[in-house]
Amino acid sequence: MTEFWLISAPGEKTCQQTWDKLMAATTRNNNLSTNTKFNIPDLKVGTLDVLVGLSDELAKLDSFVESVVKKVAQYMADVLEDSRDKVQENLLANGVDLVTYITRFQWDMAKYPIKQSLKNISEIIAKQVTQIDNDLKARASAYNNLKGNLQNLERKNAGSLLTRSLADIVKREDFVLDSEYLITLLVVVPKASYNDWQKTYETLAEMVVPRSSNLLFEDNESGLFSVTLFRKAIDDFRHKARENKFTVRDFQYNEEEMKADKEEMTRLSTDKKKQYGPLVRWLKVNFSEAFIAWIHIKALRVFVESVLRYGLPVNFQAMLLQPSKKTMKKLREVLYELYKHLDSSAAAIIDAAMDIPGLNLSQQEYYPYVYYKIDCNLLDFK
């Protein structure tokens, strides 16, 4: 489980004291969580009105960017197909695993200059991630179309002899071609009926060429037999074959069509291989970009919420806690005792969602300290 709690509390005499108190309460005797300081630079505060409006906007942006991060991660897993188990090693942020990136977070001054207003920084992130989302839709659509067309062709070449393409099974010499009177038909015969076929095929209709039947191919259930007869006996032969549970396939030997199908398959397969490498690289780069943007939004939210709650001048310590599933409830209680003096109205809301399985209170989660969850379990199949 990789869940982090990003919290903040006001500085005591110094922010270091705030940190020391948290460490004493959560690690000294009870080992409730693994903690690291979360470094947020001195951002431009702006006016209170702007901060209040920005708080709502950042909540929406947080949800949007998280959804894009998850979409890119999930699509990476889809594209990797048989190598899905390697997806985690491709989901990196700035070249390191996600836990390392979060626990060693440093604000990216080049991408998100702190001389800009908070609103401008949030707009830079929104624009960047919207572009990633749009690009993902376009790339995924193109690749999925290619993959779908290839799968359709592959499906044609697999499965039951009753439905699959026969182009890669039969050869020119299996047929009587260019005859005005004779034609070769292909018949699917269940394995259990091979003897019946051999005994009866010459008498299913008049004008069947004796000893003209050959077994061309078989799968687990059936065999594909050729048989040659006069063209005018086709309908009668089909009808009698059906009565005997032999299936005459609609197939005409056409080398040009068969060649075109094979070439299309080769082309699609080559195109898929050509697109695969660049697509995986794009997904890796843009997963990293989106994830980094997401953690910067969390930092912005902590900053804005801390200023709104704890006031000016800016004086708070942001802290990253990694609880284990077993310690979550106890950790909530300890944090409540530690910070309840900050906001008496928060009372004893100690995550009812933990006690009532299936109840999601995430929209109403409120604690006397600033709190945001970062969940690194980004894939549905995990």
TrEMBL record:
The keyword Acetylation applies. Gene3D superfamilies: 3.30.70.100, subunit c (vma5p) of the yeast v-atpase, domain 2, Vacuolar atp synthase subunit c, domain 1. One of its GO terms (cellular component) is vacuolar proton-transporting V-type ATPase, V1 domain. It holds the Pfam family V-ATPase_C. V-ATPase is a heteromultimeric enzyme made up of two complexes: the ATP-hydrolytic V1 complex and the proton translocation V0 complex. The V1 complex consists of three catalytic AB heterodimers that form a heterohexamer, three peripheral stalks each consisting of EG heterodimers, one central rotor including subunits D and F, and the regulatory subunits C and H. The proton translocation complex V0 consists of the proton transport subunit a, a ring of proteolipid subunits c9c'', rotary subunit d, subunits e and f, and two accessory subunits. Belongs to the V-ATPase C subunit family. This is V-type proton ATPase subunit C. It comes from Erpetoichthys calabaricus. The gene is ATP6V1C1.
